[in-house]
Every structure is written in structure tokens, then in C-alpha cells.
Design goal:
- The structure is a homotetramer of 205-residue chains.
- Chain A is mostly helical and 205 residues long.
- The first copy, chain A, folds into 2 domains: 7-52, Homeodomain-like (Arc Repressor Mutant, subunit A), CATH 1.10.10; 66-204, Orthogonal Bundle (Tetracycline Repressor, domain 2).
- Chain A has 9 helices and no strands.
- In chain A, α1 packs across α2 (34-41), α1 (9-27) crosses α5 (103-111) and α4 runs antiparallel to α6 (118-144).
- The first copy, chain A, is elongated, with a radius of gyration of 20 Å.
- Chain A binds a DNA duplex (21 and 21 nucleotides) through loops.
Chain lengths: 205, 205, 205, 205
Amino acid sequence: MARTSGSDGRRTEEAIRAAAIDLIAEHGFAAVTLRDLAKEVGIQPGSVYRYFPSKNDLLLRLMVDHLQELLAQWQAASEGIADPLERLKTFIAFHVNYHASRQKEVFISNMEIRSLTKEHRRTVIALRESYEKSLRDLLEDGMRIGRFRTGDPQVSAYAILAMLTGLTAWFREGGRLSRAELVRLYEGLVLEGVLDNAEGLRQAH
Amino acid sequence: MARTSGSDGRRTEEAIRAAAIDLIAEHGFAAVTLRDLAKEVGIQPGSVYRYFPSKNDLLLRLMVDHLQELLAQWQAASEGIADPLERLKTFIAFHVNYHASRQKEVFISNMEIRSLTKEHRRTVIALRESYEKSLRDLLEDGMRIGRFRTGDPQVSAYAILAMLTGLTAWFREGGRLSRAELVRLYEGLVLEGVLDNAEGLRQAH
Amino acid sequence: MARTSGSDGRRTEEAIRAAAIDLIAEHGFAAVTLRDLAKEVGIQPGSVYRYFPSKNDLLLRLMVDHLQELLAQWQAASEGIADPLERLKTFIAFHVNYHASRQKEVFISNMEIRSLTKEHRRTVIALRESYEKSLRDLLEDGMRIGRFRTGDPQVSAYAILAMLTGLTAWFREGGRLSRAELVRLYEGLVLEGVLDNAEGLRQAH
Amino acid sequence: MARTSGSDGRRTEEAIRAAAIDLIAEHGFAAVTLRDLAKEVGIQPGSVYRYFPSKNDLLLRLMVDHLQELLAQWQAASEGIADPLERLKTFIAFHVNYHASRQKEVFISNMEIRSLTKEHRRTVIALRESYEKSLRDLLEDGMRIGRFRTGDPQVSAYAILAMLTGLTAWFREGGRLSRAELVRLYEGLVLEGVLDNAEGLRQAH
DNA sequence: GATGAATGAGTATTCATTCAT
DNA sequence: TATGAATGAATACTCATTCAT
């Protein structure tokens, strides 16, 4: 009924987060009970409330932390790169690598937005849109200077994001493909599409 | 109490399906209660069981019906088209149109797979994979005859599907873009990518 | 798992109310759990929610119904009585009889106001004040026409109400005193106080 | 972590009592959590246990201390007064003043008896009855010597106590009435009732 | 003297489901 | 064909209490 010998708040909180990410990614937020979560961590259900004020808040924290990390790392990775094509290649490599290494967090952040309260939803969507905008801006720049085909930057941004992010649904580290190969394949698709180049030229008009 | 005067089984079942699609697409399967559903239809919760043996079965029916319809319509639309490029263009147009017109069903079928029991899950995934395979085969054909750039047909299929299906997350009928414009934009992206053609050639080696 | 044979909604609701009045009067609202209540009625805890949207709402209903009945009966009992002294005697008799016969409801309505939400509290207090005002008005009338000693009608009203209502804390039907004796005793105290009359005269100046 | 610098046991205990009186008077014993209490004091919930063995014991201490003080002060105030009328007047003045100055303690002692364990309840009720008996005895004396109207001393005692104690429900220091005025008004009601004296005489038979 | 971490038993409430009518 | 009444198992969350530090 009291403090477990050797217990440590920081470690417990981290264990809760890790277990939550695993369980929610596997079963979905609504299907994970605090009982399940607590059992996985090895504590009592009520003890979760020392660290998170509610189940919903726990989800929010997971999402916000992930999205802020994503934004920060992208900022760092893209800093100083001005050329739109270079920026796009960097984006593809960054996005694929980050998403391959954090599949569960990414999956949760994409799937569980509906599980948030309206207010929390706004917070998360704002973060997501800031990331999207970064890609859209880059595409606009590239179109303006004639490096990219003229198109709809908004649609292209959505399309590229959906395509790349889709890897979380099937990619498994240590499987048939390495991350580097994945990056190369996606880069080809994003930049040149599926057509053979000669064909591409013929298509062009 | 007995039969409500003027009630009609077929109409009631259709009303349940329609209400279920609306509610699940909006709130997610787990968040929709049979009470919500019954209220929307104007019946008592228990009455749903005349038409569906359980809440889970209702979800399964929604998904299976949608996927079977998708497969049947794609079969019909692609029949007799042998050329891979033509087939791909047809696929893009078909997929975009179908998904734009049935956004809710599509959304549910993609998001709620985890809500199914293991057995039901297998059924739905098999249907989905049969559709995916159709695209993968087409891409393989195109690569074999040199019409498409050599790549990984599996990854390309996943990528194209994710890209196109992503429209359900943002596209709204009657908005800035028509379906026809959407098809044109996606076709450009899938076939040629984002690069300007001259650039594309230079990139080629 | 289904409807109990021979069950009837109206009877069940009445049983819940009766059990709630008994239990809350005995242990206090906060100390009565829905488990206790349900067990007393012979149903499952969740079944209470068919009849009352929440534990708090149940309390509100009990209080409001009692207070509305109190007001209605007092209206009926006092109708057509104009003379303040007659009205006061009628009030004493009515209040004592009503409170002796409905001790538990009265006790709850007086003790559990703090258990209500702010909004519910307002509703109940408004009803209570309407009853109080009825007594205050009568006292004012009596003072104006010189039938009652000049005093503070508000304080007198509070004092008389507290005095009479206090009976719920100790009076037991069938005990040493009958209701009629109780009325007579309280009437004496309210009208003449404790002093002997001769003494009363001497006190008067 | 060890002792907070500058902490002082006696001061902390006093702070806990004061906070408990405020919170319990406002929200009721059951509705006040040790967390609320600790927060109000500025300590951790567990720290309360240095001073009180349990939440229930804290309530008991509050009540017993208040009742013992009440008894002691009444003993002191009434000492040497033999005449029943004088004693009664003294009682009214004492009771009103004490209750006006300690409204919260009084309110708690009256309202929270049900929150005590059976054993604790007995302790508190014994103290209360000793106070009540003091009033009953005085009334009996007055009746015996013909100073007070013949009546039921027990009922009169309950009635007077309920009437006077009722002030805690509405009286606010600094409001329309001073304590002295309150005493005067209550004295009038207790001694002479509401009737005008002439009227009183006529009523007498 | 006080904290921070945890417990375990409990609470109101929800909900898919069942079945007598 | 549909309702109205009820179940039973689960759920998020709370709270008095304990005790290693």
C-alpha cells in the first residue's frame, strides 16, 4: 500500500509512455484499457494518474511530444538548404527515416486524432499542418523557379505525405528492404513517377 | 409491444447501415454506441439485433460489402484493357472517382480494421489484398515491357494506393477542385512525379 | 441478461425512490452507493440509470418532488384563511403534521442541499424560499394589524421554521407524544413563548 | 526528502484544523478529500497522518474539541446563576453569541454526526446531550416554580435549541443585524412568543 | 517533520446484449 | 417487427492510506 522500494517517478513515467505507445499502436486507443496499460507497466491502474491526469491527456502528450520532435528534427535537418530540389530530397530521406524509426508514434498520431477532444484535436492538427506547410512551401518554390512541373502544391503535398507515411502500414525493419533502399525507391517515385523516361518525354505533350 | 405500424424491414436495415456509416466515419467504431445508432435511426437499441447479430458483425458487413463492390466495379472498369499504361490510367481515374464518391465507406474500411475480430480481419484483408494485387500486377507488367521505370512493384503499389486513397482525408465534393481535376493532378504525379521533364532527363543519370 | 419476467417500469422506479429515501435519510447521500441502493431494490446498479440519469439527479428529483408537494399541500390547507393568527395556527399544525409524516424526505431536503450541484441547488433553494416567504408574509400581516408583537418577520420566520422542523431529528411516531400533542406544544411555544402569562405581562414593560 | 526548512509541528496542526473546518463547513465531510485539505494547507496528503491517525479521527477531534469548549464556556457563563429566568436569558445570549462566532464548527458538529463511526458518534452525542440537559433542567426548574408555563421540558428544550442554532444557516456577521439585536429578538420569541401581550392574555383561556 | 511514489479497494457510469411482452 | 426492462461485465477514475527515502 505504499511506495515500492526502489521506485522512481521518472522511470515509471517513461515506462507508461513506452507501454502506451506499444499498446495503442497495436489495438487502438479506445481498445486499450488502463488496466491493460498498468499491467504492462507492472503498476496499479490508479497509479497512472500520478503521471497523466486522464487517459485522453496521455494520448495528447504522446502525440504532441512526437509532433514537436518531428518538427524540431526536420528544422534541424533542412536548415540552410535553399534549393527546392535539394530540400525535397532531404525531406524524403528525413521523413522516411524518421517514420521508419518511430512507426508506432507516427501511426498513433495519424490514426487517433478522432480519439482526442475537440480542443486537443485543434492543438495536434495545428502541429501537423505546420509540418505539411513546410512541404507545400518547398513545392511552391520549386514550381515557381521551374524546377518542378507546374501543378497544385497543396494536392502534391498531401499526395507525397500520404505516400511516404504509408510505409508505417507495412514496412518492417530488417525485412526485405533497407531504409536506404526505401528512400531511393520513394525518391524515384516522387521525383519521376512510374513512367520510363523516354515515355515520360513522349507524355509531356 | 408489437410491430410499429408502417415499419418495413428492408427500409429499417438500410437506415441502420446508412446511419452506421455516417456515425462510424465521424466518431470511429469504438466511440459509436448502439444507443447512438438506434437513436439516429429512430428505433430501440435492441431492435438492431433483428438485422445484425452483433455490433462487430455490422462493421464487418459494412466493410465487406464495400470492398466487394469496389472489386466488382474495378473488374468491370478494367475489363479488356491490356496495355499497362492504359490500365494504370484507368485505375487512377477509377480509384479516385470511387473513393471521392464513397469517402465514408472507404475511410471506415481503412481505419477500422483493428476493430474487427481476428477472423473478420482476415476476411477483409484478403479482399483488400486482392485489390492491391491487381495494381501490383499491372505495374509488374509495365516494368517487364519497359513502359515503366524499373522499380519495386510492391512498394510502388503501396505508394500509389496510399497517395490516392489519402484524398478521403481532405477532399470535399464541391470544393476548390473537381473530381476530373483531381484525377488529372494525381495522374501527373503518379506517372511523371514532380520534376520538370527536362530536369527529369538530366536526373536520369 | 434481459427483462425480468413480470417486471414493470413504474413499480421499479417507485421502489428506487423509496429505497433511496430510506438509505439517504439513514446514511447521508454521499455515503449511499448505487450498489447499496440497487441491492436494496433487488436490481443491478446499472439499471438505476433507466430511471434517473445520475445519482445527483436522483437526489434532485427526491427533493423537488417533496418540496413541490409541500407547497401544494400548504396552498390547499391555507386557502381562504385570511386572519394572520388563524393562518399561523394552521401553518403550525400543517407543518408539524406534514413533517411528522414525511420525516425522511424532509430530513434529506434539509441536510443534502450541499450535495447538489450549484444549479440544482438554486432550484431547490428557490422552492424552499417560496415556502419560507409564505410564513414571513403571514407574520408581517399579523404585526401590521397589531395581532403579533412587533419584531423582525424574517428572523421570526427562520426561528419558527427551525424550531418546528427540528422535530424530524427526534420525533418518532408511536412514541411518548402524539402528533396532536406535538402541535399543541409547539403552538404554545410559538404563540406565547415559555413564560407564564402573568410573568409575560410583567415582562411586557 | 526530509523536514521542510522552517516547518513547525504545532503550526502545521493548527493549519490543518483551520483548513478542515473551512472546507468541511463548505462542502461537507464526505466531499472533502485529504488532497483538498493538504493543498489548502500547503503540504502533501500523507503528511496529515503525522497529526491525525485518520480522516475520521480528524473529524472527531474537531467535534469533540468544539463541544468541550462549548460546555466549558457555558459552565463558566452560567455559574452562580440560580434563577431559571435569569439562567434562560443567559443561555440565549450565550448560545447565540457562541454560535454566531463559531458558525463553522457548530455547523459541522450538527451536520456531520452521521459521518462518524458508531463509536465516535456515541462520544459526540453524549457531549451534546449533556448540553441539552442543562437547558432542559433549567426549563423544568422554571416550570416547577411557576415562572414558566407548564409544558414539556424536553420538547421545549429541543425547540429552543433548534430555533437558536438555526442562525448558523443564515446569520452573517456584519449584515443587517448585530449579535445584540439577534439576542434581543430571540429572547422575545423564546420568552413571549409572537403574540401581542394583550392578545396573549385573551388566548390564555 | 515531510515528501513522493504507490496501493487496493471502491465509485459512478456505460454499454452490448438478451428476452418477455 | 419492435419495444421496454433488465443484466453483467467492464471502464475511467478517485481516494484514504502506507511507507521508503
